[in-house]
Amino acid sequence: MKKIYYYTIALLCVVFCIQSCSLESENYSEVSSDIYPTTERDAFDLVTANVYATFRNHEYKGAFNVAAGFHLLSDIATDFGFCSWGEGNWGQLEFADFQNPNGSRNPRLLWEEYMPFLSKMELTIDRIKGINMNEDLKKRYITEVECGQGFLAFLLWDLYGPLIIADVETLKDPLAETILPRQTNEQTIAYIETKLKAGIGVLEKSYDKGDNDYGRFTEGLCHMLLLKLYMQTHQWDKAIAEGRELMKSEYGYELVTDAGSAKSAYANVFASANEANRETIWSVNCLREYQWHLWYPHVVSWGGYKMTRLFYGTI
Q1: Which end of the chain has fewer surrounding CB within 10 Å, N or C?
Q2: pLDDT confidence of 32, banded at 50, 70, 90?
Q3: The predicted structure's pLDDT at residue 304
Q4: How far apart, in whole angstroms, are the C-alpha atoms of residue 183 and residue 112?
C-alpha cells in the first residue's frame, strides 16, 4: 500500500512539472535571415552557388554546357558550325528557329532557363549587404555578382534582345505576381554596361594559372565583355579604347606564339600544354575528378557537332 502511495505522489509530481513547463517547437525546414546568411563563408557560398554555378559546364546544365549552351547556339547558327544529326530537334539550333515552341533543342529554352538567374543574383547582392563581414571582401563579392549579371545579361541580349529586369523590391514580394515588361534596347544595353563597369577598379586585373582564385571574375573580363558590347552596338571609339586597355602590361595577356610543333599559333591556343595560357582572359573551370562535360560524346563518339569544311580550311 505504501508503494502505491509513493507511486501516486511521483506521478502527480511528473504531471505537475509537465503542465508547468512551456515547450516551444522549432521548425528546421525554414531558413530565416537571422540565421542565414550571417558569415563570410555564407557570402562565399552564395556567390559560388548563385553566380559562378550559372556559368558552369556540367552535363546538360550551365550556360556553357556543350550540349545546348550559349556558345553552342551562337556558333552552330553561323557559317562555321553545323550538326550532322539532321534537322528535327537539332535543326532548331542550326537554323536558329526561335519560333517553334516544341523540341528538346529549342533555342528559346535558354531564355526560359537563364532569365531567372538575373533576379537570383539581384537577391544575392541584397543578402550579402546585410552580412557583418570584412567590408573590402564584401565589396568584392558584390562586384563579382554584378559582373555575373552583366555577363549573363549580355549573353541573353545577344540572342534575344531587350530583357526583363526586376528590381529588388519587386523580387522581395513574389506573392504580388507583378508582371514586368521588357525594357527597351537602350535600357538593356545601359544595364549591361553599368554592371560590367562596376568591376573596373575593384576586381583583380587577372589571375595566373595555379592561383586559388583562377576562374573568378576579373577586371580583364569586364573590359572584354564591354569590348564585345561596344562592337555589337557599333560604338567603335569605345571598343578601340577597351581593346587598348586590355593590351596594357598589368593585365599580363599575350598572344600564344608559333613555338612548338603546331602548324600555327591559332592551333597552339588549343594545345593541352597551353591550358590556361596568357591569351585566355576567362575560362570556365572544370573539376579534376568526375565531370560529365559531354564534349567527347557529342563531338567525337557520336559525331554530331562539327566545324564546316570551309571554316576548317581557314585555320
Answers
A1: N
A2: low
A3: 84
A4: 17
Place of cell 598572344: 255
Cis previous bond, 162, omega within 30: no
Question: In the structure grid, which three cell numbers stand for residue 313, read together?
Answer: 580550311
166: Cβ–Cβ under 8 A, 6 or more apart, which residues?
A: 118, 119, 122, 180
Q: How far is Cα of residue 189 from the mean position of the Cα atoms in its chain?
A: 19
Q: Compute the distance between CA of residue 99 and CA of residue 95 in angstroms, rounded to an integer.
A: 11
C-alpha 236 chain-centroid distance: 28
- Residue 315 pLDDT: 65
pLDDT value of position 158: 93
Q: Packing angle between helix 236-246 and helix 219-232, nearest 10 degrees?
A: 150
- pLDDT of 100 above 60: yes
Q: DSSP readout, the chain?
A: -HHHHHHHHHHHHHHHHHHH-------TT---TTTSS-SHHHHHHHHHHHTGGGG--BTTBSTT-TTT-HHHHHHHTSTTEEETT-SHHHHHHHTT--S---STT-TTHHHHHHHHHHHHHHHHHHHHHTS-S-HHHHHHHHHHHHHHHHHHHHHHHHHH-S-----HHHHT-GGG---PPPPPHHHHHHHHHHHHHTTTTTS-S---TT-TTTTS--HHHHHHHHHHHHHHTT-HHHHHHHHHHHTSGGG------S-SS-SSHHHHTT-GGGTT-TT-S------SS-----HIIIIIIS--EEE-HHHHTT-
pLDDT digits (tens, 9 = 90+) for 228-256: 999 999 999 999 999 999 999 999 999 88
pTM for this predicted structure: 0.85
| Interatomic CA distance for residues 14 and 64, integer angstroms | 64
pLDDT in tens, 49-66: 999 999 988 888 889 888
Given a cut of 60, whether residue 82 has pLDDT beyond it is yes
Task: Report pLDDT for 33.
Answer: 65
